Structures are given as C-alpha cells and as structure tokens.
Amino acid sequence: MDTIFNSDSKLFKGYSIYGEWIVKHGLPTFNYTANPLTLKQAEWDPIVLPKTRRHPHVIGNTAIKAVVDNMGTASIFTETEVMRYIVSADHDKGGSGLTLIDEADGTTWGTSMYTAPEGVVSQRQFGPQFFSVLLENKGITVERELIMPEGDTPWVFVRVRVSAQEAKSFKLNEEWAVSPLYLQSLTRNTVRKKIAEMAVSYDVELGRQIARAQEIINNDDIDDDEVDGEFAGSPVELMLESLGSAPVDVKASDDKHPVLSISTDVELAAGETKAFYFRFGLFDDQPLEAPETFFESTIEVAKSRMVKAESDLAPEVAKELMWHSATAYGLVNRDDVLGGYTLNQAGNYGFHFGINAAARDPFLDSIPMMYVEPKLGLQVLRNTCSWADEEGALPFGLQSDKTPEGFGAKPSDMNLYALWSASEYAAVTGDLQAFDEMLPSHPEYAIAPLTLKGNLIRQYNYFHNVVGRGLKSHVRVMTGDWQDVALLVAGDHAKEMIEVGTSVLNTAAAAFILPRWAALLEKLGEADLAKQARDDAEDLAKVLREGFNGKWFDRIYGPEELVAGRDEIWSDVNGMALNSGAPTAEQAKSVIDAWKEVAENSPLGVRAMWPHNLNGEEAYGGIWVILNMFVTTGALKYDTDFALENFRKNALTSHARAYPSLWEGVLSGPDCWNAPESRRAGRTWGAWGEDLAGQDIEDDDPEAGMSMMSAQSFPVGNPHTHTALILSYIRLAGIDVDNEGCLLINPGIGSFESKIMKVNKDGSGWIQAEHTLTVKSVNGTFTGKGLIEF
C-alpha cells in the first residue's frame, strides 16, 4: 500500500480548503477539518433549495446508501423497490446517526456539528465505504466510525471507541431519527415531506438490545388539496441494535416518526479505551458474529476488490483510481423489482429528482466494471436490458417506482450502448453462456421473457430497422441522442427533424460499436446478423468521414439544410469519431488541434461545445465527464500526449486545484462541470430549475416538478465522475477490445490491477478467466481459461 500512497506528499494531500487527504485503515481518506458553520466559502446554493452549508458524499453497498456529510451525520437511502430515504436529511443540519455523551455534571455533547461542544471542531473523515467522526472534549476522545457492510446487507455498522486521559464516568448514547421520504419523480420536496408526514407512521417494539420500528403506510390519511401523490413502496421494518455485551437502555420517542436510541454507562480508567458496536437499517434477524472484528474484516474485503494503479505519467490520477472504484461500487443498487442490479446515474437524478435516467448511462457505467467486477457488471447490463419493450426500444428512464417513462423524449442512441457493454463483457470474460440465460422483461410490458442474447438482438434490430438512416445516410436523431434535447436545434421543423434528421454522433458511435457487436454475434452463431453489422459499420465509417467539414465533424443534419456543429466543435461527436478509428490521420489532427486551441482556458477538460453562447453551462461550454472519456480514449489513437493531458485534467485532483473552495469535486461530482466563464464556475448546471426557482409556483402547479431540475441540487454521487476515469485509465494503460472480440493488451502509461487481472506498464501481466478467451498482447496471442499469463 505504501507504493500507492505517500501521505506526506502535497500531491496526495490535495488542495481543498476543507481539509486534506490522509491514509486511514490503509485507504485514501479525506480528513475534513474546516468548520462549515463559520467558514464563509462553505455556504453554497443548490438553486432549487435554500442555501446551505451541508456538504454531502455518498458511500454504499449494493443494498443501501449512506449520504454522509460534513455535519457528522448520515442519511440512509435505498432503491431496491422504490427510491426512498428511511432517514432523510434536514437541509441545514444534515441527517442523523450520532453519538452523544452525557457527563456526570449534566452536560451533553455529541459527534454532529450541532451537538459538538463549544469551540470544538471535529475531524470528519470520508473514506471508501466508511465515515468517521473524531473529536476530543474535556479529556474524553470519541471516535465514531460508520461502515457499509459488503454486498446486499441492508444496514450500516457503527463502531464507537471512547478513551480518556484520566478516569471518567459518563453515559454513551447511540441515536438515529427515523425520517421517511419517498422521491416521487420530479415532485417538490415540500410535497414529498407532506406525504411522508401524513401517510407514514411506525409501530415500535423495544427489546433488551434492539429497537424495532415497523412502518405503517396509509395513504388515506393524506389530506391536503395541494398534495398530488402517494407514499409508494412496501412498508419496511427498521432496527437499531446494540451488538455488545454491556447492559443497555433501549428507548424510542413518542413521535410519529420516532427517534431510536440505545444508551449505556461507561466507566473508563486513565488511559483506557472501550469500544461499542451497533447496527442500524432494515431489520435483519441474522445475528452478527464477532462484532469486535467486523470493521477490520469489512475493510479487508473492500480492499481486495478495489482497483490499484501506478503511473509516473499521471501519478495523481493513478492514486485516485482506488477511490473511484470504491465509490462506483457504492452506487450500485440491488433491484428487487426487475432483478439484478442497477447503476443509476444517481447524483441529482437519483438522490434529488427521483429518476433513473437515461438508459445509456448504466450501460456506459457498466463497461469499466467488466474489468473490475464483471459479474456485477453483467447484472447491471441485464437489468438495464430488461427495460426494453417488445419492439426493442428502451425508455428514456424509470420513475422512482421503476415505471418506464419517456419524459417526453424518444432518443435514438440507447440501444448502441447496450451492444457496447455486452461486447465488452464477452471479450473480457469469454462468458458466452451468460447470453443464453433467460432475462425477464419489465413487468410493465407483460411480454414473454427471452434470453439476454434475444433481448440484445431485438435491441439491435430496433436500432437497425426502426431508428435507421436519414439525411446524408447518417443515423437518425429522432428526438435526441446524447444531447437529450437535440430536437431543439430544429426550431419550427421538429416534426420533420424526427422523421429525417440525423445524428453524426450516432453514426460515429455505430461505426465504433457495431464491429465489436458483430464479433459477439459471430461467437453466438449469428453469422448473417454479424455480417450485416459489419457491413453497416463499414458503410457508416465512410459516411462519417464525409461528415468532416474541413475543421471537425458536423453534429446534426436537419430539414431546410440545417447543419449543427459547422461553426462550433462538439466534443461528443468528435470524441466518438476518433474512437471509431474511421477518420483519416489529417482529420484527426485537425480535430485535436481545435481542442488544443481552447485547452488553456479549460482546466477540467474539453468543452462540450466551443465556441458557445457564453453561458458556460450544460452543452454551452460545460465540461461533461463522460464525454471527456470519449475525447481521451479517441485521441489516444492519434495523439497520446494530448490524451494524457486531457485525462489528467478530468481528475478530481485537478478540480480541487482549480477550485479549492468548492466541495463538489473533492470526493465526487456531477455529470457536468461549469466552465470558467460561468458565473458559477466549477459548479454544475441549473437548467430549468434556475429559471423557475425564484418564481412563486404552487406545489400542485405542473411546473413545480420542473423547478426541481438543477444538477446543482445534489452535485455529487454521479458515477460518471468515477467510471469515466477508470475506463479512460484502462485504455491509457494499453487495455482494449479489438473488432474480433479479443482482449487487446499493449504497453501503456502505467500498471492496472483488479481482482480478475493485472497489466504491467510493459504490457505483460495476467487475467483469471472462468471461460475460454483470447488475449492479444505484445508478448503474443494466448487462448485459454484459468490463469492466463501474457
């Protein structure tokens, strides 16, 4: 571990005004030491909510998430059935989950910023999968550590260690306030809170060491003319349990949404340390063996699945990779409705809006998982494929209750990313049997299940036959592609645009993805479809080259000779074009030269569009993390130095260096960063929410839901921030898939290691394969299974 982290280096510590990076439990950990209640820069504006000083971060396992914050508290979120909090946060004071110390003189203090002793500022330590609060007062030291157990465990584990310089007697209290909140899609928080307050209550049972709270949902109790909706999901049973042997006092308040607490008397001799253990979350009747070693054993298992990397050419990003892999894992959610797991785009979409959108995003985020935890990546692929209807069309996304929803959009690109994810999984694992496994469709459709192979072929046929081609023989755009609102460029010609308008981005993506998909089809015995896919890819590559306008690639063709992207360079289409390998060397050089011209005033990477309307947000100059992955991996084929430079700009380290007073960008981030010319540089977009937030809109007004549309409402916890960096590094490390469906290994910028593979900088290494696969490396071609060394 010492070869990965040098905790004494400025490079590791970072630049944020809120604290610095340390090594704790052998893992990178951000030690937040600032006092947000007094530090002026700590206040920030979510736009659609009041200003706040609360700085959240998401840690999790595959069953629940803890939104931990600089206030020393946590909110508990789950979306196994519906998107909901079982402990929601106060906008200013944070969530719950705190340790209180009742001293003999009658004073009480605790681990949250609002219960801390006067003049005492705690250390709030954000680690991968754990969160600690450390403070000392009047000779008593308290270290409270919350950790997410591995896998589908639906509760958090808490270890509280107390010590004293001299003999002390006091009462220790573990406290959690239950505060349900169902994230009804695009509904104001005021309405959501009213629904929860009226519809949800709890039947509490107190035991010797456990408090159990059975949820009761009665939507008939909702009595408010302005409230439109219900509290969805099945009632859950919560628990707060003491796991130690010490005598405890279990209590619950009389509130409709109760505060659960467990207290115990503590006697400490001078210099003595004692530990206490608790778990909180959904009820689990399985006893927890050996709580004394549970924290350490969880840390060790977590370490074993985190990515490790070393690179002299990008040392700061290599150090981040372990963090990125842990955080991305913590955003995966088990799905009890559709089966498998989903990797919701989360961030503002999942933790604030209450939607799982768009379908392309879980496919994209699953691709680096194939190199880290491929079986989990396969589950994300299967889950998202199950959204497809009988025609093969994917909905834009899912509402908070997992109902398919178009949200007024019918994008043309969704299926392509399913084919990419599937092709990558097959090449990395050699697992063809997975494609013969049955895959139930979404229960909303009531259509017969079919195999994963059948589902993917249905999606491919939809893309080939229904999306099809339009103007200039490019792939149709329909209502949008990566740009969900691409239709807006058509103005008054929207209908014609849907019918014949085309996306050069889709053409580039198909030219890149279809050869990989064809290789998988060949392995699955679908020779005719494979030939069709290869023929399409070859033709689209030719069409793509014809879309070069002398400087870069056009973006969209529409009716009335409409051309978008002629006067400004779009990173999405040009990044994907370079990934396809279709451009000539001269075309690629022209594109990269254009990017280089604006690189100096863009500290976080290539803009989505340049020049733009000086807004500096969203597509208009914003820096989209996943699009920069396309830029980096595409440029790598033509200009390694530029690819490396852009990759380093995409790192969280770069954001903290450029914007040291912002919290977003220290541990995680949104899908898009605002450009330097934005009035909120380094933050993220406001969109419709910014226009509507200041208006006096009634809760039942149709526009009230749209007033929630601001990424800045929850500017962390988007997996793109992490998965895009992982996949970019994988490609820079020389690891790729070729058009024959083989794993391709070349020398790269550094080493990469996961549970299933290790690749050294010189291109040597190994992969552990349960199925037969082929590795083409600098040391030769190797076909087999088991441990394959190359």
From TrEMBL:
PANTHER family: CELLOBIONIC ACID PHOSPHORYLASE, CELLOBIONIC ACID PHOSPHORYLASE-RELATED. Residues 404-601 form the Glycosyl hydrolase 94 catalytic domain. Keywords: Glycosyltransferase, Transferase. Coiled coil: none annotated. It comes from the Bacteria. One of its GO terms (biological process) is carbohydrate metabolic process. The keyword Aminoacyl-tRNA synthetase does not apply. One of its GO terms (molecular function) is glycosyltransferase activity. InterPro entries: 6-hairpin_glycosidase_sf, 6hp_glycosidase-like_sf, GH94_catalytic, GH94_Enzymes. This is Glycosyl hydrolase 94 catalytic domain-containing protein. It comes from Photobacterium rosenbergii. Pfam families: Glyco_hydro_94 (PF17167).
